[in-house]
Amino acid sequence: MYRILFAIILVLITPQLAYAAGFDESINALTAPIAAMVGQLVFFKIPIFGAQLPLVVLWLVIGAVFFTFYMGFVNIRGFKHAIELVRGDYADPDSPGEVSHFQALATAVSGTVGIGNIGGVAVAVTVGGPGATFWLIVAGFLGMSTKFVECTLGVKYRTENPDASVSGGPMYYLSKGFAERGMEGFGKFMGTFYAIGIFIGALGIGNMFQSNQAYVQLNTVAGGALDGLGWLVGLILAAVVFAVIIGGIKSIARVTEKIVPFMAVFYCVFAIIVILMNITTIPEAIGNIFTGAFTGEGVAGGALGALIIGFQRAVFSNEAGIGSASIAHAAVRTPEPVTEGYVSLLEPFIDTIVICTITALVIGTSQVADPNFANGATGVAMTSAAFERQLSWFPLPLAFAALLFAFSTMISWSYYGLKGWTYLFGEGQTGQTIYKLIFCAFVALGCMVQLGPILDISDALVFLICVPNILGLYFLAPIVKAEMNSYMARLESGEIKKYKH
Amino acid sequence: MSETFVVAVDGSPGSDRALQKAIDMGKDRGVTLALTHVIEWSAFSFHTPEELAERHKRREEELERANEAILSPSEKIAKAAGLKCETIVLHGHPAETLVKVASDKGAENIFIGRKGQSKMGTLLFGSVAGSLVQISPVAVTVVP
To answer: 0.90 cut: is pTM over it?
Structure first.
């Protein structure tokens, strides 16, 4: 039914749109001032030592450092156990067929491994210099602890719906967790705040930024043939997203979910090949990362400037502190919520410490060999140019990978956003459809706007979600710590057994 | 203690023949039949967040459907023939799960019907009976 309706709408509006040659520009002119305003509002900056420190970045850094210390470096100590859990060593053999740790991890990783890993890193290196890479890795490392806390809470405070499906995530742990501590009213407020944040925020990081960068890469491959046709690519992308989330054509999503992990491996393998082809420049590139991290040569704000950019892009990529992954992890039925916390700490590791670092090295080694290799391009176009220097055919598969990453991230985020929406407005079908339609519209919009304003809006929205989430995590962290200590004690005493080796 | 035969059932004509064979061979010996249906499932597959959220619900539905549509009819046939029997439904890799049930029950024999696939079909989709024969610690009776 919807599909037919959509086809009719598409046929009706396509000719009209074709007349609007300067359509992209006018949309762009319209959104730029709005983006700048939202950006300024959320990115209230404090000048320190000549650098501009956005308040929200400070908020995230302090949070991640605090959780790392408070949980006793769970990001290092829990790493081995996380892998054992994912391997299924502790899986209960008596209840097969439920969501496994591996499945939850794979889904959450598909949602996080997106354009940020390809294009976001390039932005970090352009703005923050090679040193930003160092801080990106540090941020990924610290982010593991934040993820641990939020995903444990996501499972602990999830809600089982009457139809036996589950809903979880920050809005649920904020409202229930605070209620448990006798602050019911405050919990309700925080849950609502977060729900609003995620359903609006989903339109930025998980939507416009993704479709925008997918379009840019497609255009790069097409040699600029798609200039000014952003609206068309946007409409096609929106149509596919529409088909999946409203049309219910699950097969597209299923295929994507299956291809994405292989594309991620494919991307890493070829990135490593390119790095090896640039082998003579590796020492200098790594040297630049370390000196840049502490001197911040040529970066606005020096070392602090590099740190800020690194952290900002890391969060944008691995979503630690945003709370989104806990929505996916909440689906695992386990008597020990903390096990999902352990599993989730692998996400920033895979996403940021492995994939982002590899991208940064591809760019870094190319920069050393030829400082102007990208001709001033940034974002995904810059990464593409770095690959092209060595493997001239790579931009095409990269465009395919970018499209897939963008698509799977959009599908995941449409669900995260929807969960915020249903938390606020209930599970009614009409409401859900309205949200999904809005989501599709923004997919199209993302392709029509320049990267700059999109990044501003997306960043602003993402950090808006971090505020209630991390504030809640501080209050609820003692619960997670108690769970972790009890679990660890039982693991050591042998009460929790491995089922296989 | 009486002997146990595991019978792999999936509602296909092949599985009906396997059940009949198990009944014929076990009738006079007071054998207990463990009618087992395996729902193919892997802990290492990829899903969308929505599928994860609905997984528990789907699992319950799958179990119910397996019991109603596949195991109950087979159970009736076995009981009508005068054999004791129990029904088992599990998620997992079909051959591995059948082997696990057989060793848990201390079964003598696993009965399974074959689909009569072509070589190409086996190459593409594998064969439960084929891999069962390779990994089973007890005798396997493949019924044509």
So the answer is: no
